[in-house]
Fold:
Amino acid sequence: MSVRFPLRLTLLVCGFLGLAALPATAQQPALDKIVAKVDGAPITEADVTQALTDLGESIAQIPEAQRRDYAITYLADLKLGAKAAREAKLAETEDFKRKLAYQTDRLLFDDYLTSQAKKNVTEDAMKALYADTIKTLKPEQEVRARHILVETEDQAKDVIKKLKAGEDFAKLAGTLSKDPGSGKEGGDLGYFTKDRMVPEFATAAFALTPGQISDPVKSQFGYHVIKVEDKRDKPVPKFEEVKDQIEQFMYRKSQQDVIMALRATGKVERLDAPPAAPAQ
Structure:
């Protein structure tokens, strides 16, 4: 279950995803520890951590136990290649200097965004946002129901006859239901809100009282026999349950605010022709 943050705000913030990484949840120990040397040049624990971050999805298929060795080998190749490039005077070319200036700006920008966000995203600030968001949540009804899914209306009517004769709903679901997921759980769908189910199913389920069994309900999947177990207002999630989501939201919002402030105070001059706005 998730706390819903303002949609317009969320969409705006999402436009800046990837501009700066969220902070690590725990600082890695002994980052200055030297783990290897390449022609005398050290590779530190911090280098390995950075390499693992940079490699990201490209090493996702490598077993976790082997990723560290892969990263160290990658760093060794990097240092060997960089040394060869310096010896070839590539670091002195204008093309390299332009690339270096760009990467320096990008890394500084990323670090600045992260450092500014760290100042704003405190435990108290997260709890305050949680409290404000919880106040706006309106009670939403949930139903807990079981169902038995069959192919035809006659089969559904036969199921209802068996239930009226005293047969157990969960056992019948286990043997008769065509729903491979809930069938194994005695037809139990757990708690759900009205928007989680197809309209025909939801309308029928929410019209029932706890303990009541429906008539055959047709949907795109077949015919359902529904039994409502319980109704309740959807519980409000606890702070700890949504803390990670709040933290990520606040970091991205804080970074977006920094960008907007920089744009407001900075002077940007376009010397080329900006693209024409699309015709209305």
Summary: The chain has two domains: 7-23+30-132, 141-233. DSSP finds ten helices and six strands in the chain.
